[in-house]
Predict the 3D structure of the following.
Amino acid sequence: MTDLYFMPTKLVHGIDSLSQIGDLAKGLGMSKVLLVTDQAIAGAPVFGKVKSLLEAAGVPYAVFDECEIDARLRHVDQEAQHILDDGLDGVISIGGGSVMCAGKAMAIVAGQGGGSFADYAGFGNFKKRAYPMIMVPTTAGSGSEVSQVTLVKDDVGHKKFLGGGPLSFPEVAILDPIVLETCPQFVNAVATVDAITHAMDSLFNRTTTPLTESMALESLNVLVGGIQASIFDKEPQAMADHLLASSMANMSCGNAKLGLSHTLSLPMESGHDMTHGIGVGVLMPRVFRYSAQFSPDMVPKVATAWGLDATGSTDAVADRVEDAAYAMFEEIGFPKHFDPAHIAADQIPSLALDAGRGLYGEGYMADNPNRDTQIPTFNLGTTTIGQGEEILAKCWA
Ligand SMILES: [Fe+2]
């Protein structure tokens, strides 16, 4: 078996790294860019700073500031056409995962000469390079800034689909802790749990390699150990470390792939407007506990990364990590269970059935899926729709 590690995005990180954005844009040959953001960031000081820096560097810009939770297909298609019509030649996203996904999807569609992102859904389903991109994450979470894939939601079909491939890696990601200074504590907490889940998901796959494992374990060490200093005390260096660790977690799962937490969460995000970080995060401790049986050697490594005692039986150590995750949830105000008023527990069988389609669009492995049908994932071991149902059931109180 041959393994591949690929992550071509240039990472510019550290305190005051944002000040380089003008030169970085010019270095990519950007002469007039589309700034992509949401209403909250558009009114924040950091957005004004980015505009000033681009003006000082002589890089004109247009602004799209209507991003919502989840990148929206109608925005993506509309702004890709805007890029083409107005002769823009680069995309700069400033925001969380949804904003970065929107910008990446716009760059992909513009790169193909227009059309709809829906036409390019799936992995690697387009032939031309996306327009040049700079990503400025404003949360330490999604890691979308170093990811070749993007998730877009179609409001009409209530469907969330994945697109992207090697031709849509952002050229540059700028990780400056200034963006976290004004980020609300709960937003930060949800983003951090998403990043932790990326690392956890990537450690129990058939595609896990020593490279992805080392990235994931070190990112866990920084993300879990730095919660107080980064999220509560807002120490600049701790926030910078959290931003880099969230990128590292995505560099791991981008290569070792995501796992069951993301696979089982997708139907809730598609059909029930579940917030991504909450969907995957509530699942994460349960998925870890389930996955531990398939890689007993990995369990003490995870415990050590979480700062826990790694001695004892696999079950004892795995229980310790699971309990530590719930304690962390309590500390940061993150929910331990899904809210039945949002999604009723009687939806679990249909959610599990939907998850059987797979995260990467592989589709069912059987024509008439049932509880014994295998969910297509990269996870070690096998997981049936029935087992997915059992994991989901643990997430409701
Ligand atoms: Fe995620």
About this structure: The mean pLDDT is 94. The pocket of fe (ii) ion is lined by residues 142, 194, 197-198, 262, 276, 280 (CB under 6 Å).
